[in-house]
Amino acid sequence: MVHFKAMAESEAGARRGILMVVSSPSGAGKTTLAHLLAQTERLEFSVSYTTRAPRAGERDGVDYKFVTEDEFSRMIDRGEFAEWAVVHGNRYGTAVHTVNRALEDGKDYLFDIDWQGGKQIRAQWPDESVLVFILPPSMAELERRLRRRATDSPEAIERRLVMAKRELEHFAEYDYLVVNDNLETALKELSSIYVGARCTRARRGHYGLALLHEAGFGDDGSLLIQGRSPARFGSVPGPTPVSITITTVKPLLFRFSRISFASSSE
Prior knowledge:
The chain is of the alpha/beta class. It has two domains: about 1-10 and about 205-260, no CATH class; about 20-200, P-loop containing nucleotide triphosphate hydrolases (Rossmann fold, 3-Layer(aba) Sandwich). The chain contains eight helices and 13 strands. The strands form three sheets. A five-stranded parallel beta sheet has the order 3-8-2-9-10, with helices on both faces. The chain has a four-stranded mixed beta sheet with strand order 11-1-12-13, with no helix packed on it. Strands 5-4-7-6 form a four-stranded mixed beta sheet. A hairpin with a 2-residue loop joins β6 and β7 (about 90-95). The longest helix has 16 residues, at about 185-200. The protein is globular and about 70 Å long.
């Protein structure tokens, strides 16, 4: 009789959603890449609340949920935000129910938020969050993109450039870096990061456990295998209970921790 007990708790249970956070300095292209990634990989896009005025072409409830300063403050008081921050003089926030729904339903959500929001998401959900920082190829290119966008006044653009330098200081807090020099290449890299995160053992372990159950393991992780007793355990041959316990250490590496034999003739 052989008993296998695998103590890999992070691999058991229902599928948990990924919180995919994409951040960058203003003008580096994170919003464009985030929307393309959501379409390509069929991710749920988290629509942030903001107090700023809509830009040309932006739709309420699609690009952002536009609210007044008073309404935003009331939402903070009611504890309705998973994260919120002041960015370029305006407030942005992610509703906590969005995060809870993602984790409970096993859906993967994409968050287009700044480094402050990314830091808050990581602090609260370190195992579920995947953080990606989008970098511009150069500061000169970043400035060119901001001026070409023409959605802000010259003064606002100068403020964004100053802020971009400060935002770049936080790239080391992220798991992955994508340089947005070519949009198609950057999207491929971003998609690869998402797919790789989806395939980690911590997130795919439940498939392995399902296969173990299919192979004959019980809910307690035990499997019965009949063998014959080694001669030294007695003169009467017969089934020998062999108890094998497999434990794990971090990272999740299996090792045999105990093997015990008991002769049926004793």
